[in-house]
Amino acid sequence: MPIYFTSLDDPARVDNVLAFLEPYVPHTLGLIGNIVNPHPSLVKAVKVYASFEIDFRKPIRPPSTISGPSETPFSTPPLFSIIVLRPREQGRFFCSADLKSSDPATPEEETHVQAFFKKVIPIVAAFPPDNEDGPTPEYDISPVGVRGRGYHVGRVHEKWIPCLDPITILRSGPVACFIRPPPPPSLPQAVFPSNAASATVIGEGAPPDQGSSKSDRWIISRFSPSDIDFVRLTQSSSLIPRHRAYLESRSHTSIVVHDGHLLDIDVNHGTTKMPNPVAWSIIQTDGSLGVLWVEPSHRGLGLGDLVLAECVNRSETYHGFSGDRVTGTGILGWQWADVSLVNTHSVRFFAKQQGWRIGWNSQWITFDPDVDPTTIDWSFRETPTEVSRSREWAKNTRILRHQPEHSNAPYQKSGQ
């Protein structure tokens, strides 16, 4: 299988790549987010590879006139793959067969995906070493692989986990891809819970001025250095602990809540000491909502709803070629979050949110780019797959509900 590279050093080419990915939303949200969400100085470092050849330099018909993948202006084979890579950090993968979420992978599809990754591995191996300038590492985990530089690919559809098992050295376990389609204009973009509606919003982690009262209990700001220290300490045992530098790089998208009742106000000296945060979240580099946490001492007060609503309101809007036909914030009006199925509290939290639903299950995989793919035994292992286990878990806990699979499925309230 040949593999084709597309450079993003030309803004027009970037727009064409995004226009190609748009009709396949929500399955391509992570790929789009990895292109439009990083700092502008890092966009040129993003690499795009596909199993088909398309001249993204040519102007194309805007997707605003496209109703679905079958009408994409690009000529693509029935089965194709595309991956967006951020050097030394992580990537996002999409295969056209992802659109058939409930269908198991066919032998032809599995062979195609394996052949694609055989080409991707040497490309990742050629990325610059870690001591050169590049994107901020996201995960604070022990080095993996021969040279300690395992590469992460996020949101890999669960159907590909068995055929990619031979190259996988770490995996996240089953993850529910929660998605929220663009809500109709008649619905509010985000709703604050009544018991958390009294909130003071301040900037960049700065404490409120000394005249602030405690009547507005919840103080919303962005990460301060001390907040990041506390977050890292609290989530040090997390399945995916975040690197300090990564949290700092996403501080402009962070939501942190402090309890105004715990403010240490020194009237005599005119100083205010901010307490440790009680809830927080960030908007990830792929545009998803993540690291959502509420301290046990403050659960049951609506803070999770408050933080989620504020994240939705603050998420950067990317409209692409669709212009003002898109409502809401986020990528083309969509919001999404990856939630480990093991984390039952988080799964239930998102399942009850208005408009949110599970789109499909996936896993994050890590492979070693320094292993020669021609030396790998690509035959399948005869052990039960995480796919069947994740489906059984979801069935037993009644988390998965029947939902239309197509990306243009109507917006639904939770429970419908």
TrEMBL record:
PROSITE patterns: GNAT (PS51186). Residues 218-383 form the N-acetyltransferase domain. It comes from the Eukaryota. Gene3D superfamilies: 3.40.630.30. GO terms for molecular function: acyltransferase activity, transferring groups other than amino-acyl groups. SUPFAM superfamilies: Acyl-CoA N-acyltransferases (Nat). This is N-acetyltransferase domain-containing protein. It comes from Thelephora terrestris.
